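PROTEIN DATA CARD
Card holder: Cytidyltransferase-like protein
Chain length: 351
Origin: Hydrogenophaga taeniospiralis CCUG 15921
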Amino acid sequence: MNVIAQKYTGAVCIGRFQGLHLGQLAVIRRALLLAPRVVVVIGSAFQARTPRNPFTWQERVEMIRLALSEDEAERVGFVPVRDYFDGQRWVVAVRQGVRAQLGDLPAGQTVLVGHRKDATSEYLSDFPGWLLDDVGSQGDMHSSTLRDAFFGAVGQPLEPALAAMVSQAPPSTLGFLRAWAQLPCYRELAAEWANLRTERALWASAPYPPVFVTVDALIECAGHVLLIVRGRAPGKGLYALPGGFLEQRETVYQSALRELQEETGLHLLPGDIAHALKGVRVFDHPDRSQRGRVITHAHHFDLGARRLPEVSGSDDAMSASWVPIAELAALEDRFHDDHFHILDSFLGLTP
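Structure generated from the sequence above:
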């Protein structure tokens, strides 16, 4: 431990760490030089496994610990933080998690260690009172590149793909990936990764990056919400709100009702459903969907305390069912994209 270099009581590193690379490890080690205690904030926690978020937050903690020495690991604490897709709520959650690890430190005693590389680094400006230590570029390293090589290796020997990552990732990460590839979810996620890659290729020649518009319907009734289980990739087998793409000659309201009927078979009189509409919110975070830039209009309907209508899954839905609102928080890691967070926004499921 380099005591001379230490200037602060606590240091903070923030990232998703979905495939630990050498640049991220350098940031953590820089933090260890600056303070005796380091808090690593693990973003995108509690998400369902997807090609973009294949590793649980616990697995990412293990990946980081394996890359550190025993002495280094003893000085590092971890804080999992969900994607609220709401900047203010996210900042509050990060601050609360760090405070739980470090306590209330005097002003000037907490340093945020990171690097302003692009628009994804804007969060570094969201913590007034924390000093910033910009480590600068650590080379052209990205976790997405590691994931692409990793999932692209399915169907052929894995070792050549891991060998190509030697200059990008610590040996412990490569060993972790080698072991993790034995899990059944590896092939499932690799198939989804391939589907997404094929879908993006269809738009590769477009003059501008595509922006998709979708709709979702949150139907509340007698303490339950209506959910589907997706029958197709991306997100096959995950819970989602009934919804889909906006069609050319429809309003977003008309699209929401059409998708609701097609996927769940729910039939209500036009006057009843119109009276039940409580609000519409736009969810437009750039990273909310694996497909790319997808902006959705979520419609919240409350049918009151009536008997639950009969529903059945069809079209893109493997199944449809009424799920008690009280059970939703425990299902967070089984939702497609940001659909849990849409529910949370309307129903207040998390603190």
